[in-house]
Write a structure and sequence with these properties.
Number of helices: 2
Strand content: 25-35%
Shape: elongated
Strand order of the largest sheet: 6-5-4-7-8
Structural class: alpha+beta
Low-confidence stretches: 135-140
Number of strands: 8
Largest sheet: 5 strands, antiparallel
Radius of gyration: 23 Å
């Protein structure tokens, strides 16, 4: 192990900040034609024979604030599920829809969510869902 690698290992031993700028980490030999020794992604890792990978999980040391999303329904007898309220990017579009809750517009309070939907789409039926921050976005129920 080089001195630089040893020092970096010591400096980062107690780090608890997740890496956010990388899609994957590739470890390879320093040769004219490098050989991949290890590949690490968000949910997988592989390593060549004779090496090992140790992954350090990020400890959840702080509770993040919950947020709210809007689930929309048609305001007729059919009560069709229109999906979640999403950010609209079109010039004429005031409200956009998405089917995945991870793409839904986030509100800091129930009141903000209600004000927004009542201002832009008062004719639609809706539920405001509270999202509890855990390791994934999870809908807890309607308010």
């Amino acid at each position: 192990m080089t001195e630089e690698l040893f020092e970096l290992e010591q400096e980062t031993k107690n780090i608890n900040k997740p890496m956010t700028k990388w899609a994957r980490v590739i470890v390879e030999t320093d040769e004219e034609y490098p050989q991949t020794v290890a590949l690490i992604t968000d949910d997988a890792s592989e390593v060549d024979t004779g090496f090992r990978i140790r992954l350090k999980a990020v400890e959840n040391t702080e509770i993040e604030q919950d947020y709210y999303v809007v689930k929309l329904w048609s305001d007729d007898d059919a009560k069709n599920d229109l999906g979640y309220l999403a950010l609209s990017y079109g010039v004429d579009a005031r409200v956009a829809f998405c089917s995945d809750i991870k793409d839904a517009m986030e509100f800091k309070s129930v009141e903000f969510a209600k004000e927004y939907i009542e201002q832009f789409e008062p004719g639609l039926a809706y539920d405001v869902l509270r999202i509890v921050i855990t390791t994934e976005k999870v809908a807890e129920g309607s308010i």
